[in-house]
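Figure caption, in words: inputs first, then the predicted bound structure.
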Amino acid sequence: MRTDNQASKRTLLPSWQTLVEHAEEMKAMHMNDLFTQDSERFLKFSIQLSPLLLDYSKNLITDKTLSHLIDLAKDSEVEQWREKMFKGERINRTEDRAVLHIALRNRRKNPIMLNGKNITLDVEKTLEKMRVFTEQVRQGQWLGHSNKRITDVVNIGVGGSNIGPQMVTEALKHYSDDSVQMHYVSNVDGTQIAEVLRPLNPERVLFIVSSKTFTTTETMTNARTAVNWLTSSSFNQKSVAKHFVAVSANKENAMAFGIDEENIFDMWDWVGGRFSLWSAIGLPIALDIGFEKFLELLEGAHEIDEHFCNTPLEQNAPVILALLSIWNCTFLGAQSQAILPYDQPLHKLSAYMQQAEMESNGKSVTWDGQEIDYPTVPSIWGELGINGQHAFYQYLHQSNNVVPADFIGSVESVTPVQGHHETLMANFFAQTQALMSGVNEKQVRDDLAARGHPQSYIDKVAPHKVHKGNRPTNTLLMKRISPKSLGSLIALYEQKIFVQGIILQVCSFDQWGVELGKGLANEIVKELSNKTIKESHDSSTKGLMKYYCSSK
Ligand code: F6P
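Bound structure (6-O-phosphono-beta-D-fructofuranose present):
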């Protein structure tokens, strides 16, 4: 339902209108000229935070652009919404919930009140339970049913109950002492769980069933398979309990599944799945790197929360990142954004960012249900930078579509190997320079001539070698990947996503878009099992299902 005067309140803001006009002016500019005109550009358009440096000077912006964008943030009441979030107001409007993942990493431990209750105390209680548990498992005091120590932990979960902890354990492998081996099962494709379990000894395995709702079909299916795997060896139902813990906001379902109440770690409805790695959903991280280092991860995130709350918008890194995304996508027309880590440990970061940004802000109605007639967030994709260079960077440099990209690297490698890091980082710096400056036809022709190529060859090849440049990038440079710096990096993006949602007027904390397919699958699975395909399906779906059933 859309009424004309309500249709696009954002687009009616003077700052929005100004940005629309300003974007037209800026489209005619080239970043090369902006760098030539302003020798202070790097200093002006970079932010130094203790764990990282953000350079955003390679965007098609000027002082004017930034000032208009800041006006938009102010007109959109970003500061007021930030306060509402931190105060525990129910800003997840469609689900009528507070959004308080910031409370999970509130290392100053100041009270955060929700419905008259100080939730900081609940958080601390769960953290203490995590500490005791992780120490027991890591020190070999938590024994399986045959009194053997646990050597392998399998986390069963999907979406936010999988990708956050998995991305972090991969990123922090260097900090693991291998007290236990971590494994992840998320896919309902049985191949994954079969492959994970094949080499494991049931007597030494601990399963974590991670599910906020404890209803997710994929997770429940995998959890049942895990129980069957245990009971097919020397286990009985009672001994299974020693090999299962759960993380859930739905204690009842977890207990009904057979998990001891003692072994259930709390989660709360004010923590969204994709923002939950800071909660007990992060248990696999704590098991892998130890509880103290898990706290360092929280500390790093908390530092960003403090920066986000206390820094003027002009120097506020998450705000700037959000505004640049909106500038590049909503005003300049980019439709996708690449996340390009130049640090092997961050090899799952792009996948993590996909869920974080796209599940949060990939929406087309405003929080009060009006249709949105401007682009919201881009599609997020990416890969380790070096691998990407030899795959899709051709597209980044020369396709007709401009893809803004975030380059993420570290000054030091966690695993220094003679001669490698300099080569890696040379590529890191070269790529953003090339994407920005490009190379024009005259430069190409002069270069080919200097190399002695004949004119006919130069005429033929020159157009193909032109790189227009002017492709926006942000560079995030950490000193080194550590629990703390990683915590900061993730929280920086989380708060960016929050600001995007406020400015774009979407509810960043629901995910109705995943429900439709889920509901249909629940119906279809019955038809597949009974081989009775309903005529009411469209002819394509019906045809495919019939083909599938008859081919079995
Ligand atoms: O994909 C939808 C989703 O609800 C995610 O937001 C969530 O992280 C995931 O499913 C898993 O949900 P749960 O933790 O309840 O099993």
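The radius of gyration is 26 Å.
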